[in-house]
Amino acid sequence: MPPIISISQLTKTYASGLIALKAVDLDINRGEIFALLGPNGAGKTTLINIVCGIVNATTGKVLADGHDVVREYRAARSKIGLVPQELTTDAFETVWATVNLSRGLFGCAPNPDHLEKVLHDLSLWDKRHDKIMTLSGGMKRRVMIAKALSHEPEILFLDEPTAGVDVELRRDMWALVRGLREKGVTIILTTHYIEEAEDMADRIGVIHKGELILVEDKSVLMKKLGKKLLTLQLQVPLAAIPPELAEWPLAIKAHGHELEYTFDAKADHTGIASLLRRLADLGIAFTDLHTQQSSLEDIFVSLVSDKPEMRL
Amino acid sequence: MSVPIFNRHAVWAIYRFEMARFMRTAVQSVLTPVITTSLYFVVFGSAIGSRMNSIDGVSYGAFIVPGLIMLSLFTEGLSNASFGIYVQKFTGTIYELLSAPISAWEMVLAFVGAAVTKSLVLGALILATAALFVPLQILHPGWMAAILTLTAITFCLFGFILGVWAKGWEQLSLIPFLIVTPLTFLGGAFYSIDMLPPAWRTVTLFNPIVYLISGFRWSFYGTADVAVGTSLAMIMVFLLICLAGVGWIFKTGYRLKN
């Protein structure tokens, strides 16, 4: 099945000279949840805005469901819904008026039943006659999502959808996203909450200083890059690592009370058995031990910090 | 979902949205210019006009009616059209317009269409208000409607350009109040330019507003400061300039897209 979004050799240089994207190639599979991670200013929003038609690309090509987003913008854009990062709403309009406007803008005939369902799903139905300016920040965020869903898009971009929202809304939002995915909607999200990406996404992309440095299936990524940490609680504190243990990457923590061993969980030989034997030989006793899998956040931090500085 | 060549739902949605904003501010949008115009009639038409001779056989009160309608049309057309697009830029809601499957000209049709509707409603209201103060005659109603509509379209297009160009609220009001209003006052809204000394008359002919007011006044009373054909040609030139400006904005993405 061809990708629902195909991005090839996409670059963007702003008038200020800032290079926001450097020859980005990316395919988004139909029906998946794709999380695009990256530090502030990495180029995530620029990438989304180019696909959605808000920013012009410098070079490169983007296809949305096979339609060029520039030459066949009508067909391409009608497939896409966008929830932007900023809370930009028509303050003086009612919720009902603004979702109707959104549906019309995307070329759809009025469909009050669909809009009612969207507002019910987002717990906005009771607020439909309220002016947006009277709503809380969380409710405004829901309105933004309702607007993006008003024209029943096949592709949904969520740019930092949970920034500054409370736990309840975050939970509702992810339930909604899962529901949309089950209906076949492709979802591309950016988030600063790495645990959300870890929890929600099928695939992860990491963008750093305009370069897409990694695209991987989440579970593969976790296996490939996931490090495990073995922590030993020592009976007697160690002042330094004995030279006989030099072959293992060890670290002393908690003022000598803990010994940490980082190992590759996927390796054929983790080195744990030999380490424990050597410790016994050396008479270093421990009272407890536990292992810990590194999170996606650890992987992300490691990726963007290991990447050498690139001149923009 | 099939994609139509003309996104009528989008045009209608924007038009309705803009008209709803107009209705929300109906008191400000309608009553203010009507009251202002009434004051002009009281001051210039009754108080001062009663002491002035008729111009080309038209009483002074009736003479200023076309100029007053044009004055409101210029300022309100500019304000309404510029506000409609500027507020989208200001609040950031323009992201939705830019990401929607709508062409540039459909967007202009909707925004300018709504602004033109407001201007024409306003023109009709001022005309009705004027009829309460002075005896009116309209010799060429068809031309009157045509000139009114073409001028409204031109100034609303100009307003759209202004709204895209403006970087702040101050810039938004700069052109209507610092340029268009003075040019209207100096463009024969309250006098015939034939009343000016020859040198000033020549200078005044460089004021584009003269041609608009003159042509519009001709449709009422059959008299004009400049030839009607020249007025119509100038209106069309202004219209084409504004269309070209809007076309250039969308082609380049000037102050709309990065």
SSE map:
The complex is a heterodimer of chains A (312) and B (258).
Chain A: E1 5-13, E2 19-28, E3 33-37, H1 44-52, E4 59-64, E5 67-68, H2 73-77, E6 80-83, H3 95-105, H4 112-121, H5 137-149, E7 155-159, H6 167-182, E8 186-190, H7 194-200, E9 203-208, E10 211-217, H8 218-225, E11 227-234, E12 250-253, E13 258-264, H9 272-282, E14 286-293, H10 296-306
Helix pairs in contact in A: 3-5
Chain B: H1 8-24, H2 26-48, H3 60-91, H4 94-99, H5 104-133, H6 141-165, H7 169-185, H8 198-204, H9 208-221, H10 228-252
Task: Give an account of the 3D structure.
The complex is a heterodimer of chains A (312) and B (258). With 312 residues, chain A is of the alpha/beta class. Helices cover 32% and strands 28% of the residues of chain A. Chain A folds into two domains: 5-222, P-loop containing nucleotide triphosphate hydrolases (Rossmann fold); 227-293, Alpha-Beta Plaits. In chain A, a hairpin with a 2-residue loop joins β4 and β5 (67-68). The longest helix of chain A is centred in the middle third of the chain and has 16 residues, at 167-182. The radius of gyration of chain A is 24 Å and the shape is elongated. Chain A starts with a strand and ends in a 6-residue tail after the last helix. Chain B has 258 residues and is an all-alpha fold. Chain B has one domain. Helix content of chain B is 76%, strand content 0%. Chain B has ten helices and no strands. Chain B has helices spanning 8-24, 26-48, 60-91, 94-99, 104-133, 141-165, 169-185, 198-204, 208-221, 228-252. The radius of gyration of chain B is 19 Å and the shape is globular.
